[in-house]
Structures are given as C-alpha cells and as structure tokens.
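Researcher: Quick test of sequence recovery. Tokens follow.
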C-alpha cells in the first residue's frame, strides 16, 4: 500500500518545493503541480507533490494519521 502525506509548501526553488509537517521538512518535486504556490498543502508521495488539497482536508488527514500512529505504539 502506498501513502501520500499532506505537507505545506514553505519554499519553492524552480520545480523543487520544501514542504513541512510537524516540524519535519522534505523536498518534493513540483513537476506534476506547476501551479502550486507557497502556503499550499500538497499530497507528497515518493518525493513528488501529486495533488493540491485544502487546509481543512490536510488537517483532517493529519489528525487521522496521528491517531493511527498513537494506536499502534
């Protein structure tokens, strides 16, 4: 199973975005989302931003992922 994580774009350099969630930053390519902007939330999978999502959906998904992680620990 594959999982894409909602992350916020905090910097953009060409086609590379620096994304962040819970203090963790990752680089993600924007080749599939040239319209992405600073502050957007994107789903990141395998180093690629694959879709833009709104902040409310990102927050809900992250909350569910945190609850799941708490249950398996």
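Model:
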């Amino acid at each position: 199973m594959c999982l894409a994580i909602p992350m916020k774009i905090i910097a953009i350099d060409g086609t590379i975005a620096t994304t962040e969630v819970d203090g963790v930053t990752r680089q993600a390519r924007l080749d599939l989302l040239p319209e992405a902007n600073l502050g957007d939330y994107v789903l990141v999978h395998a180093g690629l931003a694959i879709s833009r999502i709104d902040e409310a959906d990102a927050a809900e998904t992250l909350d569910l992922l945190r609850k799941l992680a708490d249950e398996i620990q």
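Residues 5-72 form a domain with the SH3 type barrels. fold (CATH 2.30.30.140).
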